[in-house]
């Protein structure tokens, strides 16, 4: 009989499901409201944020794959659900927009709930790879932008669609988009709300790669990453996010040195070196999350 991969399933709520490949430490997080194309209502916001918060404290995981169940990644904000009970609208908006949300890193809770469903993926000390298919509109696209990489099908559809409702995109897009796209393209997509295909999204910089099966591609990349030192991967993520756009040359060079000194002659650094020589030295769990987030707290 073929070997099976040990997997544990845990459902945070009816809105989000998670599964863990225990042999690799790769977690798959699925938006799970397929009958509504994974549209974002308040329970979905809360479930996504809670899932990211729970994963942040798990030092055994090596990578996260973020996907949507059903025919789409996410069609964006469920406006109908917000308007269904007008008497509750004010309370719902307060939950989405008041800060801090209660889900962020303690001592560095800078986002509200609407922002944290995207921003919290940046705070995970592991790579997050988003697999996009079907519609990825508005808030759905902003969630995808919180990932380290985005893989999408050629015929997937993406849009910064908030202008349709007379709104601006406000789910941490100003943090994520500046790293991957020129300001003129960002303005055009925001002003017009036009829908772009996966192929055009690649040309614009919205996504990392076009492929027929984004989940399979994400899994292959995640497995390759899982073979590397978890401390080096976490430090690399922190280094780029802390320096990519808004630091001086001096601050960039100092952070490189600070992170490298923590890695040198550590167990996982030596294990990585041993593997390069063909010795199958096991890695230990990633270092404490404080090593990843202490620089973010200074911002």
Envelope shape = globular
* SSE ordering: EEEHEHHHEEHEEHHEHEHHHHH
Number of strand elements: 10
How much of the sequence is in beta strands? Answer: 5-15%
Instruction: Tell me the radius of gyration.
Output: 19 Å
Average of per-residue pLDDT values: 90
Can you tell me about this structure?
The chain is α/β, with parallel strands linked by helices and 299 residues long. Helices cover 43% and strands 14% of the residues. It contains 13 helices and ten strands. The protein has helices at residues 42-56, 79-84, 89-97, 113-123, 139-145, 173-176, 183-192, 198-204, 214-226, 230-243, 249-263, 267-276, 290-297; strands spanning 7-11, 16-21, 26-31, 63-68, 128-132, 135-137, 149-152, 157-159, 196-197, 209-210. β3 (26-31), α1 (42-56) and β4 (63-68) form a beta-alpha-beta unit. α10 runs antiparallel to α11 and α10 (230-243) packs parallel to α13. The chain is globular, with a radius of gyration of 19 Å. The protein starts with 6 loop residues before the first strand and ends with a helix. The relative contact order is 0.12.
């Amino acid at each position: 009989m073929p070997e099976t991969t040990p997997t544990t399933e845990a459902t945070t709520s009816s809105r989000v499901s998670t599964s863990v490949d225990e042999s690799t430490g790769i977690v798959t997080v699925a938006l799970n409201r397929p009958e509504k194309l994974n549209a974002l209502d308040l329970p979905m916001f809360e479930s996504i944020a809670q899932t990211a918060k729970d994963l942040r404290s798990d030092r055994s995981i090596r990578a996260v794959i973020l996907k949507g169940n059903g025919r789409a990644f996410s069609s964006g904000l469920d406006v109908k659900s917000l308007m269904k009970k007008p008497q509750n609208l004010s309370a719902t908006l307060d939950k989405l927009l008041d800060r801090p949300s209660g889900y962020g890193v303690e001592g560095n809770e800078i986002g509200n709930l609407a922002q944290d469903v995207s921003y919290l993926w940046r705070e995970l000390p592991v790579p997050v790879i988003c697999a996009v298919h079907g519609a990825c509109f508005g808030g759905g696209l902003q969630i995808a932008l919180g990932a380290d990489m985005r893989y999408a099908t050629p015929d997937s559809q993406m849009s910064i669609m908030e202008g349709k409702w007379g709104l601006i995109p406000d789910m941490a897009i100003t943090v994520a988009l500046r790293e991957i796209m020129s300001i003129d393209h960002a303005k055009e997509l925001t002003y017009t709300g036009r829908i772009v295909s996966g192929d055009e999204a690649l040309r614009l910089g919205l996504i990392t790669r076009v492929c027929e099966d984004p989940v399979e591609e994400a899994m292959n990349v995640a497995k390759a990453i899982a073979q590397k030192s978890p401390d080096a991967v976490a430090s690399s993520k922190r280094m780029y996010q802390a320096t990519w756009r808004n630091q001086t040359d001096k601050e960039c060079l100092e952070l490189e040195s600070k992170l490298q000194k923590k890695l040198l002659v550590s167990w996982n650094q030596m294990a990585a070196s041993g593997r390069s020589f063909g010795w199958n030295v096991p890695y230990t769990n990633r270092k404490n999350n404080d090593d990843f987030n202490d620089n973010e707290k200074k911002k």
